[in-house]
Amino acid sequence: DFSKGINGFDKVILRESRGSSAEVYLYGGHVTSWKNDHGEELLFLSSKAAFKPPKAIRGGIPICFPQFGSHGTLDQHGFARNRIWAVENDPPPFPTNTLNKAFVDLILNPSEEDTKIWPHSFEFRLRVALGPGGDLMLTSRIRNTNSDGKPFSFTFAYHTYFSVSDISEVRVEGLETLDYLDNLQNKERFTEQGDALTFESEVDKIYLSTPTKIAIIDHEKKRTFVLRKDGLPDAVVWNPWDKKAKAMADFGDDEYKHMLCVEAAAIEKTITLKPGEEWKGRLELSAVPSSYCSGQ
Ligand code: TA6
């Protein structure tokens, strides 16, 4: 359904037959909520998130495009998360043909402003869908629609904030022994140790050539998030911890204890599209009882 969210921002609510739900704001094409069929919130959204352009919403699943990170002329993580997206085939004021579906198709086309800072034309289609078991699926299709024959290159991430009961009781499986660039050490390259990741201080690492499946285990809740990805070879793991948390106006001082970002991304190798070519990047999230998943 369509409704007015925080600060009157338009949002789409997706419902699935067994009761799971998701919410996506047209601002940023930004998923801000994903609930299981018990109504439990699975994504972290800061209580201090500012729903005010040009600030991106703090939490949920920010879309980082056409750039991950902060280098060159673009804002940190690009501009897709700071723009108002449109509902495909549903120009406002939202008619009803998207109601009661478990998916919505959003579309972002560059504005004049955007083309000034990133001189390319593209079509970015984002499908947000709830699967029958309550899985959350995001599919991005980005097409180069340049009429001047020019290719363009970009980097990308689904900057997912998972809600966890206690960061010191969380393990991540699937990234052990991989190489990573450490954002806290001038992006120098290191190799991860041999067992599951645990967390006791700030972490900001870009893992390279990662598997299609990563598990985030919340010990206290006996819940495992399974992150599956396609077209996204890298994975960023981020927790600001206490000092950085205090320095962020749109993030509560203690909130670092209840979140972990594990971000399906394409960073190390930029993606290049010739005019007419399309790139597809898929993310599928599920939340299962840990007894089922640990070690698999
Ligand atoms: O994904 C990790 C990261 O690049 C961190 O370096 C930190 O900056 C985080 O993203 C949040 O960035 P944001 O621009 O959303 O505040």
Give a brief description:
The protein is mostly beta strands and 296 residues long.
Fold topology:
Elements (H helix, E strand, L loop, with lengths): L1 E3 L5 E6 L5 E5 L4 E6 L27 E2 L21 E2 L15 E6 L3 H6 L4 E9 L5 E9 L7 E7 L2 E3 L6 E4 L5 E4 L5 E4 L11 E5 L5 E6 L4 E8 L3 E6 L1 H7 L11 E15 L4 E12 H4 L3
Antiparallel strand pairs: 1-2, 2-3, 3-4, 5-10, 6-7, 7-8, 8-9, 9-20, 10-19, 11-19, 12-16, 13-14, 13-15, 15-18, 16-17, 17-20, 18-19
How would you describe this protein?
- The chain has 296 residues and is mostly beta strands.
- It has a single domain, classed as Beta-galactosidase, Chain A, domain 5, CATH 2.70.98.
- Helices cover 6% and strands 41% of the residues.
- It is built from three helices and 20 strands.
- The chain has helices at 112-117, 241-247, 290-293; strands at 2-4, 10-15, 21-25, 30-35, 63-64, 86-87, 103-108, 122-130, 136-144, 152-158, 161-163, 170-173, 179-182, 188-191, 203-207, 213-218, 223-230, 234-239, 259-273, 278-289.
- Strands 5, 10, 11, 13, 14, 15, 18 and 19 form an eight-stranded antiparallel beta sheet that branches.
- The longest helix is centred in the last third of the chain and has 7 residues, at 241-247.
- The protein is globular.
- The model has no long low-confidence stretch (mean pLDDT 93).
- Residues 56, 69, 76-77, 159, 183, 204, 236, 238, 261, 263 line the site of 6-O-phosphono-beta-D-tagatofuranose (TA6).
